[in-house]
């Protein structure tokens, strides 16, 4: 049942997948757990009043899971040109200039993928918040785990933004990317903590 290929690759000395891909994977797990809570809730007589909302939430979570799964591979793809830059020669001024130009060009997409991961995880958290409070009690602990995994995905993806913006010479662009990252990090982690606290109160 468990596909260990990704974990085997993650634990190897290969440069990809790495922390970014792992963050997307963690986000996909969060989305799957959120959907599970929805599936446990939908169709039940006691939840008939919100059944349409639950079905819509499930659909959004499944869409987020698909996007996050795709972003595992996307993270590896944007790392390739970045890694290639560090292998470029830098013996002459011309080589140094070419290397730096290639590096700067590769940094923006290398930031965009983790930001996309974070945005999708934010979507997962919003659905999880709804399901944790309104879904079946049979899945409330799973909603809590969803929040914990989503927070980890947010924090993990943010590292890949910050490490790349730090190398940017375009400080205005770096600041813009950092601000977008920090905004999601602050609001997402706060929401994840709220869900965690609520679920903990329900299960203890």
- Largest sheet data: none
User: Roughly how many Å is the radius of gyration?
Assistant: 20 Å
* Strand content bin: under 5%
Q: Are there runs of 5+ residues with pLDDT below 50, and where?
A: none
Mean pLDDT: 95
CATH architecture verdict = Up-down Bundle
Count of alpha/pi helices: 6
Determine the CATH superfamily: Formiminotetrahydrofolate cyclodeaminase monomer, up-and-down helical bundle
One letter per element, helices H and strands E, the order comes to: HHHHHH
Name the overall outline: elongated
Reading off the top of the CATH hierarchy, the class is best stated as Mainly Alpha
Structural class: mainly alpha
Compute the number of strand runs: 0
Distance between the termini: 31 Å
**CATH fold-level name:** Four Helix Bundle (Hemerythrin (Met), subunit A)
Domain module tally: 1
Layout of secondary structure:
Blueprint: H1 5-10, H2 19-41, H3 51-86, H4 93-134, H5 140-165, H6 171-203
């Amino acid at each position: 049942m468990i596909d260990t290929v990704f974990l085997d690759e993650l634990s190897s000395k290969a440069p990809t997948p790495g922390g970014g891909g792992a963050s997307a994977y963690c986000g996909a797990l969060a989305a799957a757990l959120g959907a599970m809570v929805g599936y446990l809730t939908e169709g039940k007589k006691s939840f008939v009043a919100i059944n349409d909302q639950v079905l819509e939430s499930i659909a959004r979570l499944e869409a987020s899971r698909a996007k996050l799964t795709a972003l595992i591979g996307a993270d590896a793809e944007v790392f390739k040109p970045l890694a290639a830059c560090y292998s470029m020669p830098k013996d002459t001024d011309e080589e140094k200039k070419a290397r730096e130009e290639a590096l700067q060009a590769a940094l923006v997409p290398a930031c965009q993928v983790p930001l996309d991961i974070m945005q999708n995880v934010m979507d997962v958290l919003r659905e999880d918040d709804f399901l944790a409070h309104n879904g079946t009690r049979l899945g409330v602990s799973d909603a809590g785990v969803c929040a914990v995994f989503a927070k980890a995905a947010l924090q993990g993806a943010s590292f890949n933004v910050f490490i790349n913006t730090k190398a940017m010479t375009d400080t205005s662009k770096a600041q813009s990317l950092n601000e977008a990252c920090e905004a999601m990090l602050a609001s997402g982690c706060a929401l994840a903590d709220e869900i965690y606290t609520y679920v903990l109160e329900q299960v203890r």
